[in-house]
Write the structure tokens for this entry.
Amino acid sequence: MTTRAALKDIELNLEESVGIRSQATVTPLSPAALEKDVGRRPLRDFGRVAIDLVEPDPDQPRTEFSKDSIDRLAKSIAAKGQLHPIRVRWSEERGKWLIISGERRYRASLAAKLTTIDCFFQEGEFDSSDILEQQLIENLLREDLKPMEQAKGFSSLMELNGWTGKQVAESLNVSPSTVSRALALLDLSPQIQERVNNGELGARAAYEITKLENTELQQVVASTTEPTAKKVAAAVRQKRGRKPPATRGFNQTFFGENDVKVLVTASKKVNYHEVELALSQALEEVRHYLNNGKIN
């Protein structure tokens, strides 16, 4: 380095030490966020955990899973990865993350030999009613939930909360008739319930059978060849027609606005729970007409 260059460096250092700068200092700005990142936030309750730290909830209302369905999902997960996380909660008692929803995905992930699984971690304390309600809501969104599982879930929710069927319907956003018909299946014999569970007898046909009070007649009708809802309903009407006529029926008019009257009649004595069910079914039919443009 030449003497002139050395003196120039010393001069600059001296000026800097006493606060003299040859150029104004500009604070660099952070780079602007990309448009796709605007509004995005990291989730504190989402992450990945070792799959051996996760296990099914022993109180889960859904107890049976199709092996074929799990095998198909396992192949998809093995090829494309886990596309949807499961929801879990921590159990101090078991020292594990218990599944709130997504047990089918968990089983498929095990079958796909995954060592970790993506989860939404549910924070806070939950009582058994809260957990069951969340699991029921999740299960009710699935088309393959079996009728007897649904019925037992409704019953458990009523027992835990001291609810009526109407309150269960409001909580789960389903019609009261859906709950009433499901609960009626629990009054059938274990043999008929098993046929419903196996898919040999449809839920609608099974509900028609519940209208027979005699368990032997129920079994006879349930054993009908090809027990479709229509055939079972006809058989039930026939069997009920052999019974002695009711000594007292039901006849009541309900008044609405604009001079609208709703007449409810029955050839036998019925209670107001049965009246509510009949009106709910009629309301569903009216809504069907409205949704299909059949408005007078």
Summary: Residues 243-247 have pLDDT under 50 and may be disordered.
